[in-house]
Specification:
mainly alpha; about 200 residues; single chain
């Protein structure tokens, strides 16, 4: 566990942060030699990180595995060994040069397929959302209209005017009279409580 933590810190600091700062310096100085050096490093480092994702799962039980990773990273970065330059020139560049057209074609096909897939699922998603909205509106239309009707001014005015228009001897229920009193009481209480 300790070796894993140290390995992670070394990769973070010396494999990522230091080269990133050195790349920044190369860009700032506009030195083409430094550009090329750090571009080769980043290509090798990307491959290293890809391979590391799989080797960490299967080879972490090997003795000195993490120490070997650290030594490899130091070899890549060292200006004396120029490890990233050696790997790039001997293996990566020739391999990529011979397969470049195939890789470019594959990338174009992947872009086209992903765009078509995105459009296909986007259309399906919009259709599902529209159908759900229509279904919800049709099912909830009665509930929605009842709610809106209950808040209309006509309903409120007729509700408050019921006790006034009816005569005291009419057959209005006591419950309806009782309902109107709290409304009137709350209005008068609000006026009393509000001095302004």
């Amino acid at each position: 566990m300790v070796s894993w933590i140290i390995s992670r810190l070394v990769v973070l600091v010396f494999g990522t942060l230091y080269p990133a700062y050195s790349s920044y310096k190369a860009v700032k100085s506009k030195d083409v030699k430094e550009y090329v050096k750090w571009m080769m490093y980043w290509i090798i480092f990307a491959l290293f990180m890809t391979v590391e994702a799989f080797t960490d799962m299967f080879l972490c039980w090997l003795p000195f595995y993490y120490e070997l990773k650290i030594a490899f990273l130091v070899w890549l970065l060292s200006p004396y060994t120029k490890g990233s330059s050696v790997l790039y020139r001997k293996f990566v560049h020739p391999t990529l040069s011979s397969k470049e057209k195939d890789i470019d074609d594959y990338i174009c096909q992947a872009k086209d397929k992903s765009y078509d897939t995105l459009l296909h699922f986007g259309r399906k998603g919009l259709n599902v959302a529209a159908t759900a909205a229509v279904m919800a509106a049709s099912k909830g239309q009665g509930v929605l209209s009842d709610r809106l009707r209950s808040f209309s001014m006509q309903d409120l005015s007729s509700y408050q005017s019921d006790p006034v228009t009816s005569s005291p001897g009419s057959a209005q229920s006591g419950a309806a009279q009782h309902r109107t009193r709290p409304i009137m009481r709350s209005k008068s209480e609000s006026y009393k409580g509000n001095p302004g």
